[in-house]
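In this supplementary section we document a worked example of the pipeline. Step one takes a protein sequence of length 110 as its only input; no multiple sequence alignment statistics are reported here. Step two produces a three-dimensional model, which step three serialises into structure tokens for compact storage. The input and output of this example are shown verbatim.
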Amino acid sequence: MNSDTSKDTSRMLKAGAARVFFAKVTYCSLVAAFEEIMKLVPAGTPVVCESPALRRFAEPGLFIIMTSSVKDNQKDIKLLTNLPHVKSDLDCLSRNESLPVYFNNGRWTS
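The serialised model returned by step three reads:
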């Protein structure tokens, strides 16, 4: 995976992710694609998944909604805003430098 682009997967690599996966799939094949990717991930490994569509099918250990006042290229997350365990915005994150989430003993916590 190339870490020199502005794509989310490249940004995750730049932020320190050990591995990233990109799957461009149809809505109907989303769950099957995710299940195949998860076969490649060792048990107990922290996983960060950036997929508003997948949230409709999966209950994560920790669900984070990030909002921004910048309106360019935003995804429609209206249906997801009542589901978050943690909600933050990019302005707050830039001031605090980290989200209040941790991975301890195989589980995400906030």
